[in-house]
Amino acid sequence: MAEDKKLVREITPMDEDFAQWYTDIVKKAELIDYSSVRGCIILRPYAYAIWENIQAELNARFKATGHENVYMPLFIPESLLQKEKDHVEGFAPEVAWVTHGGNEKLQERLCVRPTSETLFCEHYANTVKSWRDLPKLYNQWCSVVRWEKTTRPFLRSREFLWQEGHTIHETEEEAREETLRMLNVYADMAESCLSMPVIRGRKTDREKFAGALETYTIEAMMHDGKALQSGTSHYFGDGFARAFGIQFSDRQNNLSYVYQTSWGVSTRIIGGLIMTHGDDSGLVLPPRIAPIQAVIIPIAAHKEGVLEKAAELKAALENAGIRVKMDDSDQSAGWKFAEYEMKGIPVRIEIGPKDIEKGQCVIVRRDNREKAFVPIEGLADTVKKTMESLQNDLFTKAKKSLDSRIYEAKTLSEMKETIESKAGFVKAMWCGDEACEEKVKEVTGMPSRCIPFESEKVSDVCPVCGKPAKHTVIWGIAY
Fold first, then answer.
1. Domain at 406-475: CATH code
2. Orientation of helix 268-277 relative to helix 45-64, angle to 10°
3. Which residues in the chain are classed under CATH 3.40.50.800?
């Protein structure tokens, strides 16, 4: 038993050192390993399985809204990247360059894809001729490289996995609708599958994506009160189209420029999942996204009939569509309990000789460790109901935490005092002047997170300059 407790104590308590707690979990839950390339991580099978489930959820939503998957090259010629000035300036500090092919110096440097707008633009310019070719609703699953100076597993790494949607449209109205539709797809996935409540809103011009006219975001709050930008959707207008010559014959047979969007979610959302639901025993995974939804632990497995009954339960749950594992290894039951708590498996099922005699088993929820004796008959339905309750309860708990830690402030000094004394977001007004936005960041350390779609006014004036306020803004320290 002492060894079992030691396994749990290996995780640093989050209240003691949140950063170390996070690092402990990603290592000890076997999500990642560090590679020999600084700033790059290895996604171990368990982490990749979580990503595959997220990918499947998003892919289904993308295809339901008419999008098709494509794949673009990894490399971008420097001349192509330079065509959109604002875009290249935004990414210049993070770009990795290929200068040699084998032993020969390349005539033109190649950028290792930090994002693919320019490649899609080149392709559109070559393939779109008429309004009948529109819209193009594309998505790409790939990795990208951004040469970050400071890295942390999932949250910031020099190479990471993501999806990037790229669409072009006949009209501005269609493109704007697409931008918001995909933001809502992200928000629905985050809330219904990951049980992560998010704030939907628009980024200020200072914080928007390089080359975009408007950037929309979903912002989540982590256990420590910091924000995590969990997905973004961008409206480009016809800026890229003009830079790359993406024209089509419109319905009046005149040449027009397309209107464009892009949107993306990356493996950083796994970091958000950890920091939204995890506890001092490890991961807590929402059932809809968990690679293993239930684990069966045979108790006194050496006794007659125990392993056979556990195997029957496993088969019944699998037939009901539940992702289940049976651990019949020679590790102690206490070790197994700690191990699967660490991995965040939503439901633990215990079955032993006395349980078999009584026609029952024990189920334990990962989130609140609530234990119940339930009949073996109809176990699959019981497990499904338990998972649904757990999924909803995780969201309710996280939503309560988010709502209770958004604090209102009317003056700059009040904003500063609030963020210094409380972990969370600050809701305050803003006149729209970038100088005032910069002043808030300088004084409080908080950049703007978004202008939320749904929010009440805190006051009538900007807390910096005292001029009439135009927007309610969520401010916060972010990962």
1. 3.30.110.30
2. 110
3. 294-386
